[in-house]
Design a protein that fits this description.
The protein has eight helices and six strands, in the order ααβαβαβααααβββ. It has 214 residues and is of the alpha/beta class.
């Protein structure tokens, strides 16, 4: 492929440094995973935002989390139309092949995708193109904007960030293999929101229908 280029030197140097720092235990763990495969207990659906790292929130070793990232950590509704669906395929693999026990949707503060959706729906200058790939993807969240239009922008965006969790959890239950696993007690769904400035985590409590800080 003539358009591909070699890795930049700073990435090569960082890889070599990281590889050299692995302990014997870490190297043995990697060999075990290579030989026996992965058996993660949890899947995390998070945002692509470079400031959001699952390992920073929970800490982890290789093989512990099956992670999927997309813009605004959204799960679309089940749409079996025969087309390619990356998020849906990843969820299907996690639930039906890896048999994860926990599926966590992780939203975060200052989410650009959420802000973009709000700006599209409220007609703000500089909003993403509604006909772009990003614009169409954010249609998953668009109905949640209307009740928040009259709030101050910062309050509306925080509420909308947390709404991505609820929308995604609801849409997860439209997948038959997810709803069956939940009803059978083989799978639990969880919602979280990360404050990227403070590093704190809020968890959704279905009893109070609100997020609380750990």
């Amino acid at each position: 492929m003539k358009f591909a280029k070699p890795l930049p030197q700073f990435l090569i140097a960082r890889h070599r440094e990281r590889r050299a720092s692995r302990s014997p235990e870490q190297r043995a763990r990697l060999q075990e995973l290579a030989t026996h495969g992965q058996t993660p207990r949890a899947m995390v659906i998070a945002c692509c935002d470079s400031r959001v790292m699952v390992t920073d929130v929970f800490g982890s070793e290789a093989g512990e989390f099956f992670v999927h990232r997309n813009i605004a950590n959204l799960v679309p509704p089940c749409t079996p139309d025969g087309r390619q669906h990356g998020t849906s395929a990843t969820i299907e693999y996690a639930v039906t092949v890896l048999n994860v026990r926990h599926l966590i949707v992780m939203a975060h503060s200052q989410c650009g995708g959420v802000a973009g959706c709000f700006d599209i729906e409220t007609g703000q200058p500089g909003a993403p193109n509604a006909d772009s790939f990003v614009g169409h993807w954010l249609e998953v969240l668009a109905p949640s904007v209307q009740p928040l239009r009259e709030l101050p922008r910062d309050q509306a965006l925080r509420a909308l960030e947390q709404q991505t969790v609820l929308v995604s959890l609801g849409n997860l239950m439209t997948f038959p293999f997810v709803s069956e696993a939940v009803m059978d007690g083989r799978l639990q769904l969880h919602g979280t929101w990360k404050d990227i400035g403070e590093g704190d985590l809020e968890v959704y409590d279905p009893g109070t229908q609100a997020f609380y800080r750990l």
